[in-house]
Amino acid sequence: MQKRDRTIKDILDFSDQEKIIKRAKICHVGMIDGDKPYVLAFNFGYENKTIYLHTSNYGGKLEILKKNNNVCVEFDVDHDLFYRDKEVACSWRWKYRSVIAHGKAEIIDDYDEKINGLKIFMKNYSDIDFKFSKPSVDNIKIIKIRIEKLTGRQFEYPTIN
Prior knowledge:
Blueprint: E1 8-11, H1 14-23, E2 27-33, E3 36-42, E4 45-47, E5 50-56, H2 60-67, E6 70-83, E7 92-108, H3 111-123, H4 134-138, E8 140-155
Antiparallel strand pairs: 1-8, 2-3, 2-6, 4-5, 5-8, 6-7, 7-8
């Protein structure tokens, strides 16, 4: 059995895992479309072990989630390209920190709950206290994912900052 690279470290502390989620600006959501994986990048909001996504009222992802709401969400930060030997291609690598969350996606239709999800979503990108028009809220869905399992990993970093 091959040993894991000694510079890969598991991030076991929830507060350290949460720091990565809060610093990320994009997440990647893996879904199951029948027997095939389906992955999309999303902007997101996060609060109290819950991920909030927004999407239009229609589309393939909603159909996929209605059939199977199990999801895997990946967040990554602190990317830094480096090499151990400039002339050796296989020594070029990326430093990173990442978190993977597993949970079940819930499609939110309730107007007030959508407003709450949008406020949490926008807190990830701005300090503005946004107002939302009824037509805009009616034209979206919120996908809410309560985290059931969380794992973290970092490569070439000694600790979380």
